[in-house]
């Protein structure tokens, strides 16, 4: 059997919502960004299981994964990276941070907009518009479930 070379790494990230707020984590190492929990998949790892693993490792939270919200393709640490960002929820608020992060916040979409210069200072993705799309999708899904 011929082995197929991998062309790039794949990362998954979780726009986690709890009680109408998003979870943001601050990286402990450069770049010191605020963003959603997540990380790179292991080779041949299922994206949903990999996302659940990453969020559990980074926060101690178990999450429900709903659907992809955005994708991003670019370079991270000089390697090509495809990132898939999912809408997720948690039924708990208490966080147990891993060594990868130094701080966390649960923020409403309005607080994210108000303080976007603090939370959205990178060209690596996780823009306010990404969270806004996740929020709109969450609202649409909530309305469907009410019907």
List keywords for this structure.
single chain, 147 residues, alpha+beta, Nucleoside Triphosphate Pyrophosphohydrolase, 7-stranded mixed beta sheet, 4 helices, 7 strands
Per-chain topology:
Elements: E1 9-18, E2 21-27, E3 34-35, E4 38-40, H1 47-59, E5 63-76, E6 79-90, E7 101-107, H2 109-114, H3 116-119, H4 128-146
Parallel strand pairs: 1-6
Antiparallel strand pairs: 1-2, 1-4, 2-3, 2-7, 5-6
Notes on the protein architecture:
The chain has 147 residues and is an alpha+beta fold. Helices cover 29% and strands 37% of the residues. The protein has a single domain (9-146), classed as Nucleoside Triphosphate Pyrophosphohydrolase (Alpha-Beta Complex). The protein has helices at 47-59, 109-114, 116-119, 128-146; strands at 9-18, 21-27, 34-35, 38-40, 63-76, 79-90, 101-107. The chain is globular and about 50 Å long. The model has no long low-confidence stretch (mean pLDDT 91).
